[in-house]
Amino acid sequence: MSGHSKWATIHRKKGLIDAARGKVFQKLAKEIYVAAKSGTPDPDQNASLRMVIEKAKAANMPKDNIQKAIDKAKGSSEGEHYDQIRYEGYGPCGVAVMVDCLTDNKNRTASFVRSIFTKKGGNLGTDGSVSYMFERKGSIVIPNSYDEDEVMLASLDNGALDVLNDGENYNVTTTPEDLLQVKKALEEIGVTSFLECEVAYLPNIEVEVSDEQKEKVLDLIDQLEDLDDVQNVYFNMKE
């Protein structure tokens, strides 16, 4: 869902078929459930839940699906339990990879993730082995059909760290704390289409690879993202 060579994910999301989109919604529902379960199910009082809801909206998850996940957390005293686990390692060509999971079976998840790394020419590392190459930041992506000066001004005046135009989209980087404030400012100037709005881990060190090597890395990422227990995959390949 969130494999980042900075803004790589959103370009790859465009090609999702319905089945893949349904899988994304299932993962988002799990994330919403966990956020609502770990705090209050009221997004106004739960910043983590509010962030996940914004992420779900940007992925075009139907409102009914979002509400069902919240209601599920509300209506269950015990319910399902998920552990949050992060795996760190290297893919082909020395590309750093972080894999965030929500799982009800740690052994199963560890086995699947390790198997994919091994089969696809990578290897798992220890905690902290690659995370130092990433920073937790807010990420907003919108089409560049909006006025650039207005987007720039609204974003930077409300705490954005950077605004980049990649030729297709504006990529706005914020601190995690300022993400929703910047989104609100963009909405106030008429922005209605958000392709991405989430807190993610963005690379501060990037690795450049050949086109052939890139395909191998993306194959690894696709295989990891296809696992039900995997929520987000972050990587530092330059695209």
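Above is the first protein from milestone M3; the second protein from the same milestone is given next.
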Amino acid sequence: MRALEEDRVFRYAMMGLLGFKELLERFAKLEERQVRLEERQQKLEERQQALEERFAQLEERFAKLEERFAQLEERFAKLEERVSKLEERFIRVEEELRDLRRIVMAVSHRFGILSEEAFREGMKYVVEEVFGVARVERWVHKDNEGYVYGYPSIVEVDVIIKDREHILIEVKSRVSKSDVAELFRIGKLYERIEGVTPKLVIIGGFIDRGAREAAKALGVDIRPIAE
């Protein structure tokens, strides 16, 4: 033991015999590996930090995209609302133009500018709109007894048969109580000839007050050409 403490050469010789040098080399290699691992760890930490930064940037971009998407949705909702309002206005304008056209036709017929045939032809779509049918037939009968007009004559009236219901229709530019009485008598004649009680309808442009009273009394339905 004294030799180990006092004799350096002897001490190193003993260390060599005991493999201390080998241990030192292995320890040095371990330290080297540790250094490399620490370097790799440092790189991994740097990469992790870079990834975290990129993730934070992506989150920020995603938040901005969500905000823009919300703004776009809001703008789209406003556009839909505006389009809906425009459609409503367009429908109202169409209805007003339709009613105006009907009134102009009624006035034109009333003052002789438009013939009876042209007026009836122009009012066909009104009948289709009111009753939801496209086919209107013409009932013609020779009234030899003069039941309708008080003398033998040809009686004509438009007829719609819908769901087994017979509907007699007259279209007038101006409806008076005499028009109501006329259709009532035609309805009675139709009932005698066809054996069916018809529904009576007058579609008119201008309706006299007396015509409404007569219609109520005789069970005739008066409908205006335009609202």
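Note on the second protein: The mean pLDDT is 81.
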